[in-house]
Design brief:
The structure is a homohexamer of 329-residue chains. Chain A has 329 residues and is an alpha/beta fold. Chain A has one domain: Ribokinase (UDP-N-acetylmuramoyl-L-alanine:D-glutamate ligase, 3-Layer(aba) Sandwich). Helix content of chain A is 36%, strand content 24%. Chain A has a 9-stranded mixed β-sheet, with helices on both faces. Chain A has a 4-stranded mixed β-sheet with strand order 3-2-6-7. In chain A, a hairpin with a 3-residue loop joins strand 12 and strand 13. The first copy, chain A, is globular. Chain A starts with a strand and ends in an 8-residue tail after the last helix. At the A-B interface, strand 3, helix 2, strand 6 and strand 7 of A face strand 3, helix 2, strand 6 and strand 7 of B. Chains A, B, C, D, E, F: Pfam families: PfkB (PF00294).
Chain lengths: 329, 329, 329, 329, 329, 329
């Protein structure tokens, strides 16, 4: 299974105020490329896993620039198509101290949302995995259908599927008052689900408790699932969070000790870095305990870096996990 | 008639590559606020004319930032509403030397285009003038109807109307194969039209020659017109243009000698600066010859400044016209 | 009382070292517009209160730029005059970690200080309030006289007066060894005084205790006063302060719990944001308790933003007060 | 022959003073990735030709960053190895007006120069072409041997070889007083040689005249050659050059009219863009005349862009060749 | 006479808009250190002449930073004192294309102007030369007296004096309607005068013609003069000037051919670079013809560099004079 | 003993990623000048001690720029020679939050390492002290020999010698498996040694305990030593360290209380600032207790400033030591 991990989702350009300013406070924006699934792909590529992104961008300087950034990050972009529509954007006022970050989404009418069809058997050929998130189906009925088609095609071909809940109420509310059916269908194809007890409650329609209890409810509801991973975050202020993680297997539960994530530079993409770290553990054959620790470590490290992507290599992860905090000469 | 000159049109954010780079060449964008009618308003305000903008923006950091930039430029923004939809954007790779500038428009779905209604009698109360351009009606049927309603309301109230052709084939082609009826209706309300022989040919449906001939054809077709202004541009390269201008009155023709516009910093908004200069001449009671010379001078000066706006005061215009090119201490 | 809150004071340009550098460490400065009273005006405008600034600037690019920044912030600048003299400046090396910020003032000879006369009855016509601070009278005898004239004219016209002590020993020492008479005259006109026990001791010439005791001494000495507001600040390091506030009414005392202001981006203007928050409470008819909490919240938020101004809307304030610290999507 | 065009050469980081400053005038450097052969690869990739770079970089942030930039430019980097040694650098003070640009090379001891061996049969498998330049053999005896081995292996496998003279006297003088034998061996393997009459004189040991005469002398000396391309440059100042080009085939000569390259942004990489344009013509089956015009056009366009790379797509080239110099909307 | 060339004058900070913007167009300023005499000192130091500056600055971050910049430029700052008063500033909107640069001076009340006394015998001990300009005496009566005292002390000690007219009408008009007496006294002490026919007319009180005629009038009026140098500038636009120069000795006249100074980056300090080039010629024992050519060449080169200082070494000057305009590798 | 403190060591350019980015994350680098001994010289000069650096740089823009930066910092650079070889560089990804900083050294082949000979009697004439660090001898056998020659010459001339251990295992391992002989020889010449118990163990070949015990072992082994200074650092994360210090005299021990160094901006050069602070104490005749407190205070302050240098004057040190953490107006 040496083929790439395939991530399917929208590429976004993130346009953020520089420094610790608000948007439009000074006449400048910093650009980064993001999108939940792209972030996972980039994070995995930095850890030396072959990855590819399946997406659609407009055939203009923005679309080409986003694809170039993915290539720079080491992600195979040969499965990215161009199509009519605009580039999905989001505008960010980064948080600072006691002030929360603020996002203005501007993704309506994107080329990704307007995509007609994907040839999944071809796109997934030889893949080591398909990774999806709950953002794609939330974008609209066509995107939801594409996500389901992808997950079914993968399962049919024996390609493992991972699904990150990433529940965004505002996206769903704009077109579908009950996302449960769609999400259930997607999780049903997955062996690995990223979600906490709130996601499980949404999927199962009932409160099944927290932690292990929620995991067991999910295992019961979704027979294909073999692993459930989640983080738990306490926000002190924009610069200081506390982050813990757990990974539930059918037969065992694994927790990573809470980390004080101080001096936060950029919190966006922290959850995607966690997903990348967990997938790294699975595909590098780490133990479940080592896997959840790698996931949490990568998530914590991501907070120290501007941009949506985790750019950490295995050596960086190892250094962090061995306690390196002072200058590495 | 000491009320403001009212400009009606969309506010756009311009996001441009820094330096002489291409978009996405480095991860940064410079922001400016633009839009043809906003540029005219800002140019007039810098020349100490009371101006106001009528527009609609989204109620988010981008819309508020655009409005703040208009206020900073001295334009009354009390007639700007907020509404559903996004902020209209355009992305610019500035030209340099032998390379032409390149624009990616991203204005579909804007709050301005989605605007429902404007209360023109109130908005135009006490106005010294209404200024429109051909971009607004090209945005779609609702915007076209708003533009016509505005022009008619102004004429009904005795508010003079100026209309800048600004013909953009790509916008019209997307929804209306024959813009002639709409444009004719708008020019019919105007006392001042900005357009050259190509615009006149489009409006009258026939080639009526160039220069004075075209102007006379337009005067014949549009009895309310009292003045027609236009520039003529020769592009040597992205840094060097030659620019001339003419102003036709019913009884007389006035030409401004061609200027070598060298060392161009930013060519966008040059035509809007010309319109501002002409309107300045009219509202400051300059002679037609002084008016066309002011228009051409302001257009030339604009090319020396980053951003869409002319920011030149009367003293700057006078210094330029008196030949100042070396350091003013 | 729908007229603007009128703030009277000098507009300053703040020129600060970028990043966390010292002045002149690299050849670049960041510009912001400030001045205690301008900061209050901008903070109030961001909260949707009509505000206007009364000031004098030089008729050059710096003066015009400062006025444009005020307009951008939503403040009515129609009462700003131009006059002989220079633009007041201050140069800032921002603090960082264990290093305190450092300011080089350069405001001698400013157009504001050289101002001859203000036509207060006209300037205050229809005003909802006049806001002053102790910096203006400290600038010299003419400025002190202007401040007193303004306060008296306001009281004579029934316009409420607020006065922020802002005691700056270095300014007073340069020309007046005993500011008590001047300050007493100003506080005597005010219904609202911003000051703590040290200010009260200065005004009354005796130590009247702290907190409520000081407030009662001030109420006794100044019969027009109805409210006294103050903050109490503990500085851990340049990035971490603790901030509490109190608002004393004649009949009641209101305290806002201390906030840990961590990850400080820019501490300048924090006190002015507090004043803006208190004035917001008064003019939005909040209860005294809600008012002091709004003042403290706005003061805390200001520390998260570069520049002298609070730029927070009511929604931002509400989000902060409801505990939002993580990304607002 | 749909395989990639393989470019073999050193990847360099270019560290240049920002704006029009001298190195170290302000404490900042702009980074670009360059190297003659890398520039050709990037230029070709932008024109949609499959390209790959064969090189060696250190296994550190600089080496990885250089490789990422090549990937972003669309070049296949799977043939780039890591090895001991440093990253080759060069420092640039860009020219401006009457001041010439100035380069400080810092490439001694690089990982590329220290490379031991290349497995050419594998590296060249399926290649559409091997492209080399005279810089690689000038770096030292090992690099010269690698270049010769590459060229011989290509010819042995039927892979066409192109060689760009790029004669750098200072590099040769440091270790080999007579580069003629090495260069002759390399040109002997080539079907396409980039060089002018001075290169031909160096190779043949005699002055064979200019233009067509020089080309015929080269064709006589090197029976494998089928095409010789060269530019001719007149430098007016750092911002204004004049550039012409010729392409000699065995049976015909083709000249492209001199272009005034005005408003130069960055002259570095202009020759490499010419090579990319010529190779584009050959591999896109353009006529020799169209090929030399494409080469000259791409060379001219490159001067308008910061960085070593040509980033122009076929549409950009076509727009330039059709005369587009004003804003493309 | 191996001691330093002593330059006496005010150190200024120049705060300029970045890029080609107007002041306050974006919230950033670039800092450079300038002042006519400081520029001459820096230009000479870059050419390896020992130089020292005599000046007074405030004892704050700005004064210290200005002195550090002089030290960085290689100028001995041990004769710079600190004193009460502010740092002299000037604000610059750089010119671009058809738009002239614009300066806002802000030097009133500077520490230099407030300086009490200079101990000239000590300050001039061992000096190779004293260089002054007409700006210093124009700053006010005390500065005029200091300049005269310096020139007299130098002449008394056998230290040659050079004086650059640098006539600034606006400075003189503010306090002295007839600067002729002061300037005459200064030129009377000089062996070298920088000035053209207008300066000579001002000094002699009559129009003595141009070029050689003016020089001979000056030689007649000032018996100590042995050389008079001047440039002649034609301004095409802000980016393109034409510059010629002449050097008149008592017995011979020397002209340097006009240079097209294109692609101008920064015109400020061009005249000071000319003075540095002439002084370089004198102190390096160049012939008068070589001297005037060096002066003109250095003046032309200065226009290519941001900031007030010429930073060119002798090798740079030689390269320019030998015609180098393309990349120096 | 009013001559300069002479620091002998390599000047390095530090090229660091801007903001909190990784190297090559965006195409820009910030430049600072560093090198352990240069940092000490700059730190002492900022405290008004005459200092000079002895070093060798290449004769190019980088070498000249490094020397200019030293001059700007107030260090006498007349003892810096130029020579063949390159400029020593290091590339820095600054740390942030939980992520450690990372350094890529690139100093092989530098002009300093290739230096042939130093004329120590001349270079040390009139010196108040010679300061060395363990980095210089670690660079290679020639540098080790130069360091020893310098230390011996100083002792022979009665110039006190200080030596900062600065043990860098990676440098030594590349050429000398047993640095003990070299280091012992150097410490033997010193009156002041900067090192902790690990350094003492390395020098004496045995574990002599910590703190006072280690100091006494060193005093016993090196009879010329009169003082030993060291810091003790606890790293919480990249932004938060705890720092304590001790100074052992032969007869007494002095400790400075641990400081919480929060909000760290730049940790590089912290140890060199400590050395500068201790040397300041010695040369300003502070008591040992005041000396160690000054050393620790300067070390802590350095963490708040970008770049390798401490730029703090005595007044800044005093303000910090008196507890100033809030804005100094």
């Amino acid at each position: 299974m040496s083929g790439p991990i395939i991530c399917f989702g929208e590429l976004l350009l993130r346009l953020s105020a520089p420094g610790r300013e608000l948007l439009m406070q000074s006449p400048r924006l910093d650009i980064a490329v993001g999108g939940a699934e792209a972030n996972v792909a980039a994070g995995l590529a930095a850890l030396d896993h072959p990855t590819a992104i399946v997406s659609v961008v407009p055939d203009n300087a923005l679309g080409r620039g986003a694809v170039a950034a993915m290539r720079a990050a080491g992600v195979d972009t040969s499965r990215v198509a161009t199509g009519p529509g605009r580039m999905g954007l989001y505008f960010l006022s980064p948080g600072a101290g006691v002030r929360a970050a603020d996002i203005v989404y501007d993704r309506a009418g994107s080329a990704f949302v307007q995509a007609n069809a994907f040839d999944w058997p071809t796109l997934l050929e030889g893949a080591a995995r398909l990774h999806l998130s709950g953002i794609t189906p939330a974008l609209g009925p066509a995107s939801a259908a594409h996500a389901i088609a992808a997950a079914r095609a993968a399962r049919a071909d024996g390609v493992p599927v991972s699904f990150d809940g990433n529940y965004r109420a505002r996206l769903w509310e704009s077109w579908d008052s009950d996302p449960r059916a769609t999400l259930t269908e997607l999780v049903a194809q997955a062996d690995l689900f990223f979600g906490n007890h709130r996601d499980v409650a949404l999927l199962t329609g009932r409160d099944a408790g927290k932690g292990r209890e929620a995991a067991e409810a999910a295992f019961a509801a979704f027979p294909n699932l073999t692993a459930i991973a989640s983080t738990s975050r306490t926000v002190i202020d924009a610069d200081h969070h506390r982050l813990a993680a757990r990974l539930d297997m059918r037969e065992s539960a694994h927790e990573a000790d809470e980390i004080a994530v101080t001096g936060i530079v950029d919190r966006i993409g922290g959850g995607d870095a966690f997903a990348a770290g967990i997938l790294h553990g699975l595909h590098a054959d780490l133990s479940p305990q080592a896997t959840v620790e790698a996931g949490l470590a990568l998530a914590a490290l991501k907070h120290s870096l501007p941009g949506d992507f985790s750019r950490f290599a295995r050596a960086d992860l190892a250094a962090f996990q061995s306690g390196a905090r002072d200058v590495r000469r």
